[in-house]
Write a structure and sequence with these properties.
Elements (H helix, E strand, L loop, with lengths): L3 E6 L1 H10 L18 H4 L8 E2 L12 H8 L5 E2 L1 E6 L1
Antiparallel strand pairs: 1-4, 2-3
Length: 87
Amino acid sequence: KWPIAYHGTKFEFGMMISLSALMATGGDHGTGVYTSPSIKYCAHPRYAKPFKLDLSKAKQQQWTSEYMQEFKKYDGKWIQCAFQCRV
């Protein structure tokens, strides 16, 4: 059984990580990917910075109506980005 770890990040980095994977970079404690077994720790605003979803600023012409309906329920809400990793 693989243990679970979490990685909190800014919302704007979420898509990049989703498409290219977590990659080791330099940080306060050296090069690496920083994870924690605690989702509460990774959800701290220092790591998973809260982001207010504003669909009025999105390029909605590129979205299908199906996507718009899915995201509409989150419009105006504060969200955070954290990845669940198997390590």
